Amino acid sequence: MLSEDSKFLKPYNPNETEGRIYELWEKSGYFNPDNLPPTTSAPTFTIIMPPPNANGRLHAGHALFVTVEDIMTRYKRLQGYKALWLPGTDHAGFETQVVYEKKLEKEKRSRFDLTREELYSEIMKFTLDNKANTEADLRALGASCDWSREKFTLDADIIKTVYDTFKQMSDDGLIYRGKRIVNWCTKHQTSLSDLEANPETRTDKLYYMQYGPLVVATVRPETMFGDVAIAVNPKDKRYKEYIGQEIEVQSPIGKMKLKVIGDEAVEIDFGTGALKITPAHDANDYEIAKRHNLPAVEVIDQYGKLNDKAGKYKGLKIEVAREQVVADLKELGLLIKEEAYEHNVTTCYKCNRTLEPRIMPQWFVKMDTLAKKAIEVVKSGEVKIIPDFQEKIYFHWLENIRDWNISRQIAWGIPIPAKICSNPNCDYGVVDLEDKINGKCPNCQTGELITDPDTFDTWFSSGQWPYATLGYPDHKDFKEFYPTDVMETGQDLIFFWVAKMIMLGLYRTGKVPFHTVYLHGMVRAGDRQKMSKSKGNVISPVEIGEKYGTDALRMALIVGNTPGTDMALPEDKIKAYKLFANKLWNITRFVLSNTPTTLERPPKGSSGVLNQADQKLSEHFAEIIKDVTTDLDNYRFHLASDKLYHYVWDEFAAKILEDSKNIFLSEDNQAKVSRQQFLIRTLEKILITLHPFMPFITEEIWQSLDKNSLLMIEKWPAE
C-alpha cells in the first residue's frame, strides 16, 4: 500500500528524475559489459556508436540514432548478453573547420590570418569544449554506453591505426599519389571527394561559338584559353573530313591552333556535336585528353580567377570573365547564338559554390578490389542492410566507383604521414611514418622532399572506426567484440561511411566490421520540412526533453518510424507520449494502492496462484511479449513500441484496472489476491519490456517497488 508521503501521489516530474537515475546507472558500472552479472557462456552484443561531430550540440537526428542504439543495447542487456555500446566523438575534419571558419568570420578574423599551427590549436580547444557538450547531451538522452571505453578520432591509438593502414595500403599498391583532376572548392581552398560534390540541377546558357570552320557549344566560354583540341564523334558524318586536321580558331586574345580528334564519348546529339576540349577544367575533357595524350592548360587559379594565360581577362572571377568573353565574342561576330540549357553542376556540400575541376597531385585509394569484396559480403548475406532496398543503391555505387581522393588541404585533421616533392608539378610521394626521409626528390631531382602539409579526408580515418576503437589487432576488446553486431546510422551515410567501413574492415582485419546495417531516415519538422536554423524549425532534443521528458521524446522518435524513411516530428506527438508516461505513473499508483507493500511472489499452491480469469489475462500479455520480442529481434522497433503502448493504455489501464476496481470492492478475497498478484507481475513485465524505450520512468518506478536491484539488468520476460 502507498504511504501518505509516496511520490506517486504527485504527478511524474522527469526533470527531478532523469539526472538522478542516470547517475545511478553510471555509478553501478553496468554500462561496462565487464561488470555485468556473470552469465554462463554469455554471448556478446556490440554496437560502435557513429561518432557525432564534436563541433556543436546534438540535434534531432542525433536523438534518433541514440534512441535506436540504446533500445538495442538495453534489450540485449536484459536478455543476458554481454552488451557493449562503445561511444565516441569525431573531429570531423573539413566540417569542423568550416564551422570554425564561420566563427572566425563573426569575429572579423580569417583562417588565412593564422598559421596552420595556430589554427589547429584554436580548433582543438573549440572541439574539446564542444566534445564535453556532446557527451552531456548523450547522457541527457539516456545513452547507456560504456564511457570507460570512450574514443575520440584524434586519440593517439586511433591515429596510429590509421597510419598503419595507410602504410600497409601503400605497400600493397592500393594507395598512390598522382596528378589527376579533382573537385576544388575556391572558398574553402581544399579538394573534395566525389561524394562531397553535390549535384545540383541548374539552367544556364549554352553558347554556340565559331571555332574556325566549326561551331562548338559550351556553357563555359571563359575556359576557351585552355582549349587543346576539338572533339567530335568518329561516327558523325558531318565532321569525318576534319578528324586529324589542325584548324585555326580566333579568340578575343588571339588565334589558337587546335587539332580535331575523334572520340566516341562525344554525344552526336548534344549541341552541334563538336566539343571544345579543356582538360584542366572539365572532368570529361580530362578523360578524353588522357586517351589522346593531350596536354592540360590551366587558365583558372585556385581562387576561381583567370590567370595570365587568359590575357586581358587575368584576375577576373569566373562569372565576370564569362560575361566579358561573351560580350567580346559578340563584338567579333564569333558568338552564333545562346539558348537555355538544363544540366547538373557539382557544388560544395557545405557552401554550395560551384566546384572547380583542378589537376593537382593528391593521394588516392584504388577502389576496384576493395569494392568487389564489399559487394560480395552483402550479396552473400554476411552483411545485411535494413531496409533491404538500400542494397541496390549500395551495389550501384560500388559497381561504378572511382578512385578515392583522400587528401585535404586543411589544417584540422590527421596529418598525412608522408614526404612529397617541393616541385608542385611533381606528384612524387612516399609514406614516412617516422618522419625520417629527407633529400632530393628521386622522381624529378629538382625538388626537395618536404613534409606533406595535407590532412586525411575524415572518412578515411572514420572508415576504420569499428576495428580502431576496439584496439586492432592485439587488444582483448578486439578479440572479444569484433566483428560487431550492428552499425546503425543515417541512410545518407551508406556511401560516405558504411561502404568504406566494410571495405577497410575487410582489408585490414579480413572480417566484416558488422553483420547488420540499420539505416534510419531524416528527422523532419512537424510540417515535413527539413530542419534548418534559417527556417527556425530546429528541434533541440535536450530542450524538448526538459519540456516533455526524454522518455516522451524517445517514444515519439520510434513509434511509427520505419527504417530508412524520413519522419516528421511534430511537438504534439511528443506531448502525447508525455501523457503516456503520466499514464504509466498513474497505473503504478493504482497498483501500489491496492496491493501489499511486499512484492515477494507466494509459492505455488498458495492463495497467490492466479485464478482462471487472471491466468487468461496473463497468457494474453505473454503473447504480446512474444510478438514484441520477435519485433525487437528483427529490428522492428516501431512495431514493438506501438504494441506495448496500446496494451498499456487500451487494455491494462482502460479495461483491466477498471475491472480491478470492482474486484477490490467485492468480498471475494481469493479473487482479490489473484488480481493483486496479476497486477504486480504484469506491472513488472510492463516495466521491463518498456525499459529499452522509456528507460528513465521505468527505472524510477522499479526503484520504488522495494527492489534491491536495477531494472536495467533484470531478465527479459520469457512469457
Please state roughly what percent of the residues sit in beta strands, choosing from under 5%, 5-15%, 15-25%, 25-35%, 35-45% or over 45%. Answer: 15-25%
What is the CATH architecture annotation of the largest domain? 3-Layer(aba) Sandwich
How many strand segments?
A: 25
Order of strands, main sheet, comes to 6-5-14-16
> What is the CATH level 1 assignment of the largest domain?
Alpha Beta
Which structural category fits the helices and strands? alpha/beta
How many helices?
Answer: 20
By CATH, the superfamily of the largest domain comes out as HUPs
CATH topology description of the largest domain: Rossmann fold
Count of structural domains? 3
> What is the arithmetic mean of pLDDT?
94
Principal-axes geometry comes out as: elongated
Contiguous uncertain segments of 5+ residues? 602-607
The radius of gyration computed from the alpha-carbon positions, rounded to a whole number of angstroms, is: 32 Å
Largest sheet: 4 strands, antiparallel
Distance between the termini: 27 Å
Please outline what is shown here.
This protein has 719 residues and is an alpha/beta fold.
Descriptive notes:
The protein contains 20 helices and 25 strands. It has three domains: 13-150 and 460-552, HUPs (Rossmann fold); 195-356, Isoleucyl-tRNA Synthetase, domain 2; 566-713, Isoleucyl-tRNA Synthetase, Domain 1 (Orthogonal Bundle). Helix 2 links the parallel strand 1 (44-48) and strand 2. It is an alpha/beta fold and 719 residues long.
